[in-house]
Amino acid sequence: MDTEYELDRSDPEAAIAAAAKRCSNWGRWGPDDVRGTMNFLDESKRVGAASLITRGVSFSLAQSFDMDGPQKGWRRRTNPVHTMLDTGTDAVAGVQGFPHGIGGADDVVSMPLQCSTQWDGLGHIFDHGKAWNGRPADQVVTSLGDGVTGIETVSDVIVGRGVLLDVGRHIGDGELPDGFPITTEHLVSTAMAQGSSAKVERGDIVLVRTGQLARTRREGWGDYAGGTAPGLSFTTADWLHQSEIAAIATDTWGFEVRPNEFDDAFQPLHQVAIPNIGLFLGEMWDLDALAEDCARDGVYEFFLTAAPIPVTGAVGSPVNPIAVK
């Protein structure tokens, strides 16, 4: 799989256009498709994934959803605001109005759907006004939401074989520095070093650990949400396409390396991966505890369920991924 090439830092427009053409899955599953690469994750993959559960140990891969989260207001993204509607104080005071002494608590959360551990849906990014499968973006996402590829269209399918590629441990002594571009060679060498259980196969959900979240926990949030970060190199676009994975997630806020690898660009790999490949991207996943377990037992594959909250018409969704070994 020849996927490495030199980038012309001065011409992101041409590089993005060329990669989009090479990696396009438009029409692959018909003109009406709304699931993109999730089509690779079929029933047989789920049956195989179920057989990976041998110990019954499980790991939540979600960060916390609270006001102490990473967001600083970039693009109007804030941390979750959790408000109590009914409390034990109300019950004891007898102001809830219920009969025979029953009381209760109730609450509400207000938050951007991509403020913590989440999936990017297929309506999240456009390429020159085109959404996934070549549809005009203004006919997909309007003020009413994503009426075609809303996140609810994959609410029942994101469960299968997960594979952890702990690149941070393999080449970075546990953590990669901010701005480090992870290339195809890094991904492949990590998989090979981890052994046969880390072989990436069609329909897999690949998790790439950089170690940035572990560093952030020691040093504080800083610019974790929106700042510099290790991440996938733009040159991995062909590998993402040719490997036929269903989805990929990282422990960073933006999946790809920041700053991006061109002189003037913003998330160019997103522009290829989501609207052209039809690939689902996960961001801000907590992979540290899982990575420690994988390093101990040498098994880097697991059953993974990561269903989004089916918010109708949403272009992204919070998720509490669960890995089971």
From TrEMBL:
Q: Please name the SUPFAM superfamilies in this protein's record.
A: Putative cyclase
Which Pfam families does the record match to this protein? Cyclase
PANTHER family membership: CYCLASE, PTHR34861
- Please state what the protein is called: Cyclase family protein
